[in-house]
Amino acid sequence: MQTPQPVLGLAPLHGVTIRVFRNAYLSRFGGLDYAMAPFIPAIKDAEKAARSHFKDILPEWNLAPAKGGVPLVPQLMANDADDFVSTARVIAELGYAEVNWNLGCPFPMVTRKRRGSGLLPHPELVDAFLDRACARSPLPVSVKLRLGLEDADEILAILPVLDRHPLRRVILHPRVGTQMYDGQADPEAFGRALAMSRHPLAYNGDISTLAGFEALRARFPGVGEWMIGRGAIADPFLPARIKGLPVPDDTLPALRDFHDRLYLAYAEYLHGPRHLLDKMKEIWGYLADSFPDPEAVRREIRRAGALDGYRRAVDLVFSLGGSA
Ligand SMILES: Cc1cc2nc3c(=O)[nH]c(=O)nc-3n(C[C@H](O)[C@H](O)[C@H](O)COP(=O)(O)O)c2cc1C
What we know:
Elements: E1 7-10, H1 19-26, E2 34-36, E3 40-41, E4 72-73, E5 75-77, H2 81-93, E6 99-103, H3 108-111, H4 123-136, E7 141-148, H5 154-163, E8 170-176, H6 187-196, E9 201-204, H7 210-219, E10 225-228, H8 230-234, H9 238-243, H10 252-269, H11 273-287, H12 294-302, H13 307-320
Parallel strand pairs: 1-2, 1-10, 2-4, 3-5, 5-6, 6-7, 7-8, 8-9, 9-10
Helix pairs in contact: 1-10, 2-4, 4-5, 11-12, 12-13
The protein binds flavin mononucleotide.
């Protein structure tokens, strides 16, 4: 029997994989089955909120699946189920088919308020939230979570709670919140969770090469869904490589085209040259890995103090060429 193709999702990166990024990326690179939008805060009386609260997910500003995009899954940051449901109603009206609950955000400003991974030490609060949210949400609810806030064993009390609720999907990033993005994702802890969970689990964390993906797939043959964030920006062809889609021998022209689209789109979206420069440098922090000497590329781009210097650095980096 042929192994079924893995389902691949683009992970949400707040401030990075916003709609301008997704549109440029999806119009150039294949292999993804869906994208998750970075979180937006759930709010009270969301129906009365300004449309700008939802600007990242307004369908008219997102590349539609029919035009080369992929289905988008909006994500909410919430610890109040009524706010979640109210905000999910607007998301349903916008035409989406699923709403994701963020149980993974590690930033202390968020976790101190018992949001994101700050809820993971409190399975009773997660249970009460999901009771209300799943019963009243107009859309199927999915969850993206970490192993815990401080302790990787927190997941052991969370999984039985998730099992009690009808979730559309559960994506596990096997790190704890206090780790932020340091160290390695922990496949062993993912394996323990997988063995316990009634829901299928999607794997997310540190997938950055085809070989790395294949090793994980061999280790977890029952996992059908995978989510990739930083690795898909570092090598935008990674989803296509995983799916066995054609990838050009010379990836540079496509990367240059993607860069230029992204630059123009961010220039229109962001306010002022400083923000544009900082955002492009952030992207290069990942994208440099598509070049044979990533550190030299990062150094060259980092040195640029203004946009004209930045554009010269980009020309230089591409003219030296030779994608990895
Ligand atoms: C800059 C940044 C912003 C992120 N924003 C979000 C977010 O809005 N929602 C979320 O669920 N995860 C967020 N994450 C976590 C990623 O979605 C993902 O779980 C994590 O980076 C591990 O996957 P990766 O190694 O494939 O990137 C963010 C990560 C980074 C680095």
